Amino acid sequence: MVHARSIEKRYAERRVLRGVSFDVPEHGFLLVTGPNGSGKSTLLRLCAGLAVPTRGSLALDVERAQIGFVAHDPLVYRELTALENLDLYGRLYRVPERRERIGMLLERFDLWEARHLRADAYSRGMLQRLALCRALLHEPRLLVLDEPHSGLDEEGAGLLDRQLAELRGAATFVVSTHDPARVLPLATTHLALA
Amino acid sequence: MNYVADVGALARKDVLLELRSRDTLPAMLLFVLSSFVVFHFVLPSGTDRLAAQGLLWVAIVFTALLALARAFAAEREQALLDGLVLATRDPSAIWLGKALSVLVFLGLAEVVALPVFAVFFGRVEGRTIAAVALADLGIAAVGTLLAGMAVASRARELLLPLLFLPLVIPLVIGGVGASVAGHPASYLGLLALYDAIFGLVAWASFAYVVTE
Predict the structure, then answer these.
(1) What is the pLDDT of residues B129-170, one digit of tens each?
(2) Are A69 and B20 a contacting pair at CB < 8 A?
(3) Does residue A72 fall inside a structural domain?
(4) What ipTM was reported for this prediction?
(5) What pTM was estimated for this model as a whole?
(6) Which of chain B's residues have a Cβ under 8 Å away from the Cβ of A79?
């Protein structure tokens, strides 16, 4: 699903990644770890098709619209409600039975009661759960999750762990985390960036 | 049809954001009306129609610049372009949706501004209204592309006016010409041609602006 060969990424003179190679087969799970500044977020942006390597090759066997992406920012409009945000993304992704799917995800991530609240009234943890709803909305084939446990309390993190375990056989994962113990049992490949 | 639905959803979202935040349209109205008041007192009495028409177009261009400077504010502040690029099949839908919302804001500002201009400087003729409508299309098309480019730049406050103002000179020439010339048809034709050419260029190139 994702095949990287000696990829390098530079921003102007600054080299963020060098000589990174890996393969993630369909339904595989790549766990990416490394200290701050090691290029984890850059690598995940490459895997989501949002950037291209400066050198080397990166092949994604998936269309852009079949990628679910959780970044450091939740990628939702703060002035819109959770429902309005998910409805916008649902329309753009052309999700069949959009309302039912949105309702199911909001219930699953315990946001149903807050569905009419604007996102700027959400806590950090609620925003992260909303970001996960957005990323899962269109049942993506490839899930690229950058620090998905960030901002979640223990209950939220447990909920996410259960979702990841449930989706494990249905999608391919590229996940970066500072807390590898949480997802290590699910991983098929571990890439440690220096 | 799906492309049209994407554009509609994105434009509707921008209008909804403006209804909630009220950041852009009140600023545009305040600016354009203040400009007319200043021009009214700056111009000597008995100033001919030509000078007043020129000032109308100056006010329109700078009012549009205010809308364009805010066009991608939410996407820039919340890094939302990544989400939109992933979700749309064709990133040009982002440009078209945004250009439509800019067009709506410009149109609303002018619905208020043109009657006020008429009060201060005399009647606004039909050909001027036609020229403003055609110029709005070009401003929204070119300006939205440039605003998208400026999002990625550190010097975005400088970059947008530096690129935008030279590119809309043909619109000002066409607009003033259509407002005052004996035969406005050729100037209106110039505006329509500008809209067609630059609209097509902006539509085709926006994907390269928002993706690497």
Answers:
(1) 999 999 999 999 999 999 999 987 878 788 999 999 999 999
(2) no
(3) no
(4) 0.91
(5) 0.92
(6) 16-17, 20-21, 74
